[in-house]
């Protein structure tokens, strides 16, 4: 009967959406660095830690109000106790372990052995309890640490909780953990040197009346001070043998410090790229309304530079390390991830619907662009996707993948070539437009309601005053482009003007459009 009740309760909790949602909420709040509200919990806990330590320091020589003592000793302890229990709860799932054991035994056709499930539960929970972080949490909340004055100093264990809340501390600990074996070896070597030198200095100096080394504790103290190369000078050997031991310990101390420094430097060197990647991911999660460029080849490079000059934010994804480095050298945030892989967007924690303005599939390979578009569409069905088309035979595949706008460079090149064949001067103009060293630029200007209010038609524009040529207007609603429009062409909100001229003049012209005009 009891077994049935336990199994029913485990299955009920395991399948309960409300229970799982609450557990996920607290897990995110305490453990998930990507969760937006976790930083507020971290700030609260850090504040409580500093308040507790401040009260401890204050009461050494000055009176502290009863409220502050009560708050530091009990209220803060209760908050940390609740946090400790919540972390113990979310560290593993008891119901999942019981359900898994039940299904395993049922599959084998044997009786459900809850004893094994309970042993696994105890093992998992005990593993968490004896972890360094959990021990620090426990020492920081035990009430009796605040009753005796000597034991109240254990409140300083709360300071070690800062390692949990400060990301920089976590990063430091993670980097140093990669050299755990080397640090253990170094610690063993230093411990052996300290032990041997302590015994030797005690044997050499203890029987000498003029020597300050009279106890084994003083010998150990001297060894630690000497091997650390601090050398306070309050305890020094007076015998020749003792000084020989001191020289050996000093030499060993220099070796220990050099080895320690080399370990720390090598650990950070090996993890530097990973640290930068984590920082880039954190920066990406904070960005809004940026263009996601998938692939960084020739056309993508030119477009990215163009968007950058227009003050647009850009993120580049590419699976090729050389192209990623090229994008970073050009000043873009570039990540070494495959644009066609769902895992890439999960690792980057990108919310396409809220963060991405448009996805630009610019690989010069139709298959890669199709894969990328299908992946994006699986994540978000509404985001704007623009893609290159390298072979016209693949156009329908790109359309089927859900791409909104397809750009076929060969089609445009063919039209230009057809019109300009035999016209070398025209070709020179096109070359000047392509050159990044020329001051002439082609730009687009989006028309806002304020601009339309002042300039309702093409003829009312002041482009001639600024020596800017209007090549055409792209109508937002009809998705049509009108080349060399007549003066009576009506302008609407959302339309784009395609203009050509000197860069400085285009900027002045665009600024003039936003100024209020008094119509006569």
Features:
6-stranded parallel beta sheet, 4-stranded antiparallel beta sheet, 520 residues, 4 domains, 23 helices, Rossmann fold, Helix Hairpins, extended, alpha/beta
Structure description:
By secondary structure, the protein is α/β, with parallel strands linked by helices. It folds into 4 domains: 2-165, no CATH class; 180-273, Helix Hairpins, CATH 1.10.287.70; 288-407, NAD(P)-binding Rossmann-like Domain (Rossmann fold, 3-Layer(aba) Sandwich); 439-514, 2-Layer Sandwich (Alpha-Beta Plaits). Helix content is 59%, strand content 10%. The protein contains 23 helices and 10 strands. It has helices at residues 2-15, 17-30, 38-58, 66-90, 94-107, 114-129, 132-139, 157-160, 162-165, 167-177, 180-205, 216-227, 240-286, 298-309, 321-329, 342-348, 352-355, 366-379, 395-400, 409-420, 424-434, 449-454, 503-514; strands at 290-294, 314-317, 333-335, 356-361, 384-388, 405-407, 440-446, 469-475, 480-483, 496-502. Strands 3-2-1-4-5-6 form a 6-stranded parallel beta sheet, sandwiched between helices. A 4-stranded antiparallel beta sheet has the order 7-10-8-9. Helix 2 crosses helix 4 (66-90), helix 3 packs antiparallel against helix 4 (66-90) and helix 5 (94-107) runs antiparallel to helix 6. The chain starts with a helix and ends in a 6-residue tail after the last helix. The model is unreliable at 415-420 (pLDDT under 50).
